[in-house]
Amino acid sequence: MEQVREILDKALAEGRTGLTAPEGREICQAYGIATPGEGVAGSATEAAELAAELGFPVVLKIVSPDILHKTDAGGVLVGLKTEDEVRDGFERILASARAYDPGARIDGVQVQQMVGGGHEVIIGAVTDPTFGKLVAFGLGGVLVEVLKDVTFRLAPVSDEDALGMLDDIKAAQVLRGARGAEPADRGALAALIARVGRLVSDFPEIVEVDLNPVFADANGAVAADVRIIVGEPPAQVTRLSREVILGQMNRIFKPRSVAVIGASGETGKIGNSVMRNLINGGYQGQIFPINPKAPDILGLPAYKSIADVPHDVDVAVFAIPAKFVPAALEEAGRKGVAGAIMIPSGFAETGNVAGQQEIVEIARRHGMRMLGPNIYGYYYTPENLCATFCTPYDVKGSVALTSQSGGIGMAILGFSRTTKMGVSAIVGVGNKADVDEDDLLTFFEQDDNTQAVAMHLEDLKDGRGFVEAARRVVRNKPVIVLKAGRTAMGARAAGSHTGALAGDDKVYDDILRQAGVVRAPGLNDLLDYARALPVLPAPKGENVVIITGAGGSGVLLSDACVDAGLTLMDIPPDLDEAFRAFIPPFGAAGNPVDITGGEPPSTYANTVRLGLTDDRIHALVLGYWHTIVTPPMVFAELIAEVVAEERARGNVKPVVVSLAGDTEVEEASEYLYEHGVVAYPYTTEKPVAVLGAKYRWARAAGLLR
Amino acid sequence: MEQVREILDKALAEGRTGLTAPEGREICQAYGIATPGEGVAGSATEAAELAAELGFPVVLKIVSPDILHKTDAGGVLVGLKTEDEVRDGFERILASARAYDPGARIDGVQVQQMVGGGHEVIIGAVTDPTFGKLVAFGLGGVLVEVLKDVTFRLAPVSDEDALGMLDDIKAAQVLRGARGAEPADRGALAALIARVGRLVSDFPEIVEVDLNPVFADANGAVAADVRIIVGEPPAQVTRLSREVILGQMNRIFKPRSVAVIGASGETGKIGNSVMRNLINGGYQGQIFPINPKAPDILGLPAYKSIADVPHDVDVAVFAIPAKFVPAALEEAGRKGVAGAIMIPSGFAETGNVAGQQEIVEIARRHGMRMLGPNIYGYYYTPENLCATFCTPYDVKGSVALTSQSGGIGMAILGFSRTTKMGVSAIVGVGNKADVDEDDLLTFFEQDDNTQAVAMHLEDLKDGRGFVEAARRVVRNKPVIVLKAGRTAMGARAAGSHTGALAGDDKVYDDILRQAGVVRAPGLNDLLDYARALPVLPAPKGENVVIITGAGGSGVLLSDACVDAGLTLMDIPPDLDEAFRAFIPPFGAAGNPVDITGGEPPSTYANTVRLGLTDDRIHALVLGYWHTIVTPPMVFAELIAEVVAEERARGNVKPVVVSLAGDTEVEEASEYLYEHGVVAYPYTTEKPVAVLGAKYRWARAAGLLR
């Protein structure tokens, strides 16, 4: 540690950003990272002894301050395999060097272990603006450079996580010895990754590390080349304690009173919409309209200033132009308001960064939390609270949704209403000048009204804070994230190879997965996952069985299962026989179980019941085919009944359905959904995708180990 | 050619499936495929001369019938770089061999060009059960073996197509000289691929070819190892001429008369549903119910047998059990029926392969075409023809849909009805015992009522016939294909490396793309593409511009554009300025053009009109954000109007819209769709995905070159 400290201090004192190769090697050695053995020999005998000690083959290089181009001077020999060859080589190098420059001072000959066998990999570390110190791992050569086959983790990493990284690249098989190659020493590689992670965590001023290439064979891993870049350590993030955040968030989500700054009686004004939504939404706490001119608004007495309100105020909703905000916020702070809901725009999003900074400082000075600015407000249905200028929403349920953009917030509202999605909260975070996803996750974690969280985000202010909060929540509730800006891989100035590989989205993808978050590929997926995940029970194992009336749907559902990373159960003979007892002789058991198209409702009921009762099966995917014999609503009612009966008996498993048929299947899908069976018409992909999302969460929560 | 013929005949006569290495090399030479030069030398001088001729470095190998293990005998030397080294090497090898076995007969020393520089690639050919002869290309080593980075084309391939293959692998950059490597001689590689394609096309009994590895550098490409497998050539497919197929299909889709074999007056019977659908669907030709017992059915005179019908019959719809089909089909054939619509199941799909073969033969004997068996029937809306037991469908339009599965057919029907999708035809192909996708494509190609074709398929009977037909259609109309069974990569017995790489789906994917087909990833995509593609005009260039009221949607729409392979236009300064004139100062021009959320309808109208009139822009993606200032229907009506006005002025460009807002955006989306603007609520992905599909077709049709 001291040794590393000294090297870094020296480099920084000299204004250098790059360390020299010997400095890099010294740091590696201090952290137990193997580099090729080496030494300087003054005689042929010394060289031979050194080589024997290091292990063959070796490389010899002339050491002379006067010879810059060693190769031109005949000063480099590679691949020497015996002591004799080394002795001979020593003399040849000396002779060549003297012939090249008779006056050159010669300090000796460097003897270096020659590495290059086994697998070529790259291990590195970068300092990410969002997540801070990250370690990276990939296979060397074409695989990382052309195919970008690399994986990232937050540093430091445990040895176990580092081992996981080895399997997280597309070409993972290679290290396990694909194509008859020697398998790499996985333990040594993982240890090396973990050491790099410790190094950059111990010394934040190390901004990038490149061990490239690292040669790994069955006996270990050696970093053949080391590049270390130093610089400004990332700024320390100050975080509030969980208790403090909870105290604040509970006052914001369950306020006893709400003031509306800029409340108005005039239709069309934001301050009027907010007032009406609070009142019509059914909020039971006290509502204080603040307006310097009106004596009362919508039947409630109004106050000239929040200071005049004769009660405590938990939340102040701002519905005034940006320029009036600072003074009003100052008053709110003095009043002891817990949460300022900052609807106004005209701050950082329009370039007014100073204005935003000003209100952040006011809020901070008073220990007040601020949501926004530039938001539509927020909903919390358990309190009938619609503190927003949008329309009220009253379908209570267990998913909390947040969005960074107002447009996405509106899409959440419309989708929720049309699908009757049960919601606990909808929160706009806008510019995230203060309250961000970490704060909200901290609240939703302990909120019994919330069983799943779905977040649209474009960036994270404090990536590590988010990961920490998400990891805690994920243990009990799914966290679904739509990360926008996936493909905008900002060109980033990078001094190292690893740095150049750290495209924004690859980093987000790896780190969000590491946090146990379920990433939604698009907006509609976010909404569908948000609606379905609280409805689906958690699976208890990986065995998925498809039961279908339409062979064609069965094939497409199988495709979808593979796409969603689900495991189609290998049906054991006794279970196969049990299914066969219910289906026609030309139907196909196995998986999918194809009951064939002309079957009566009882065939669906019998096979689904078997699927629910057999303990070896953990989830069901149903394919329904509209026929006269089993019409859509008959199927829907029957399946809902069978699922409910079996749930009552303790056979609680996720069931999803794809319905193929005429328009009546739409009503049947809705009926099923309302009865706890996730169902969609005209798609074989969506039911399986949401089941896949549930599985991703169940795995992250450790339910399937 | 003769030389190759002889080698193959000899191998086949000897019952061999594999050719020897010298046989393989000889075949390669006959086709101009470079293999390492070689020869046998009897003396050191001869060896040195031979080596100079072949080019250095070379490999020397002892040639002796008595020495099996050449290396053990010191009989192999590699990497000899000069004539002296070769001369010296010749003597050393001879000495070693003699020392190893003094009695061994020695025929000389083989001198072989040593290859191995540049890039290692694999070039091969396989015989696919669906598509016949295919050529394959991939990068050698880990890339093909672990990452399966390989591409296929129908053999033979043109040099131009072969060049395209080099860019079709993920690691294509490598051959262009990524990482400072020497670029490969692309012409030589393409020529080599083309030659392999010619070879397997000329000699169908060559079932697999493996050139692995091929070494390619800047000066050429040499096949270092050759493996050729011979066997049964694939069966010749007999195809009807286009004229014959058209004559048949026109009688089937535009029949003057339809007989219903098994017509019934009894509700619930298939023969009753078919009759009612024909009558209620509004079919204007003659309808002849066939039923041995009833004098009339639904008011129409019935006949005991089709033979009794006193008119010509174009189409006979079968609604009788399988066991009665052969006799009735025979009668239909004698009657001169053009098309037998074989609704009954109970044939190959239940294992009754012989029964299916029997009816195929009956149909063939009479020159009658058969659709099915095991289908729901077919619809052709221009003739008001609903020859099906499902419900009638009457929304006329320009997309023809076909499905191999009845369940998928029902999903097509339900989706069509609920989205009011205009359809020309819906056709069930079921077991495809006779009529298949090729026949239907041949009809739809020349059918003016059809402007796009969407097909669900699980397999192809004649892959080459399909590709041929699809290529013709694609020139004028999009062909969309949902290939089910993507992930069921059947384990295939393969004697070569290339064979093992030819997983079903990879082959389908490459060949369908080569045919210009737009592949839909799932059922819902198939339906959405089918609905949207005829509505969207074809783009005239690659420049896509996003105009959005919600910054958040803009980011997601950009992500979606990259996912869909669309090019976000780099907006030139004058155009940027023109957009800026319409938007607030804190709005963002560039691309997306962010008009910001609070804007009135005129801002949408002005920017969209600019996008439609500027010739450098080829397609628009709009992001709408629901506000009080611009409510959803105001936006929808205005955009529909602007688009219609500009279309009337000749500014015809595809416009797609993503609407974020409360439930009113659903009605607005429908309104827009009905007015030729493809629009979806609550999703940023779908509008861009369908635009991407339109672009894929436009590129395949050569419209964007």
TrEMBL record, chains A, B:
UniProtKB keywords: ATP-binding, Nucleotide-binding
SUPFAM superfamilies (UniProt xref): Glutathione synthetase ATP-binding domain-like, NAD(P)-binding Rossmann-fold domains, Succinyl-CoA synthetase domains
ATP-grasp domain sequence ranges: 25-61
Gene Ontology molecular function terms on file: acetate-CoA ligase (ADP-forming) activity; ATP binding; metal ion binding
TM ranges: none
Family matches, as InterPro entries: ATP-grasp (IPR011761), ATP_grasp_subdomain_1 (IPR013815), CoA-bd (IPR003781), Ligase_CoA_dom (IPR043938), NAD(P)-bd_dom_sf (IPR036291), Succ_CoA_lig_flav_dom (IPR032875), Succinyl-CoA_synth-like (IPR016102)
Taxonomy, superkingdom: Bacteria
UniProt KW Nucleotide-binding keyword: yes
Pfam families: ATP-grasp_5, CoA_binding_2, Ligase_CoA_2, Succ_CoA_lig
Keyword tRNA-binding: no
PROSITE patterns: ATP_GRASP
Family: In the N-terminal section; belongs to the acetate CoA ligase alpha subunit family.
Protein name: Acyl-CoA synthetase
Native source organism of the sequence: Nonomuraea glycinis
